[in-house]
Amino acid sequence: MGKRLFLEYLMNKVEQPTEGGIGSVLLFISGGMAIWWGLSGLVFYGVWGFLDLFVGILLIVIGYLLLKMRYLIASASASVVIGLAVSLFFIDINLIGAGLLVEGIAPIIAGILGFVALHKSGLQQRTVSEMLEVIKLHESIKIDDLARKLATKEVNIELAVARLKKDGVPVSFNKETREIMYEKRE
What we know:
This protein has helices at residues 2-15, 18-44, 48-67, 72-92, 98-138, 143-150, 154-166; strands at 140-142, 171-174, 179-182. It is mainly alpha-helical. It has 2 domains: 2-119, no CATH class; 121-182, Arc Repressor Mutant, subunit A (Orthogonal Bundle), CATH 1.10.10. A 3-stranded antiparallel beta sheet has the order 1-3-2. The chain is 77% helix and 6% strand. It is built from 7 helices and 3 strands.
């Protein structure tokens, strides 16, 4: 039971890469700081405080999308674009400091992490689909042979098999013979 829970934990880590979570936390922090600065800026700077509020709300929404792994390309791209625009704005008005770091550089880093998460999740999906094709072709194959054919680790194959079984695909893994089998349904 414990090993199964551990495999499910690892599967979830692969499905939702850590980089996406870290990127969304960066966006939540920078969005929260931007909102705080915007609210305090309304007192001192007037209308310019609304710009910080708007940017903060945008960053939090993008952070939520990145956390849920929805619209990864759009959210990562928007994060980089907002970060670049805010960075250029701060550099242009000679306010290089905490605002540039939190509202400009942090979203750029979060966007890059979003692209890394996109790459990792796409790689995992490709591995699963390629693995399923090979298993269907051979009907039974040793896990080490399959890992060699797909140029991946055996652990990744085991996680993919568990994901396929969870999705209702008729595959099984024999631990004694270390074979993965595709069971044809009639």
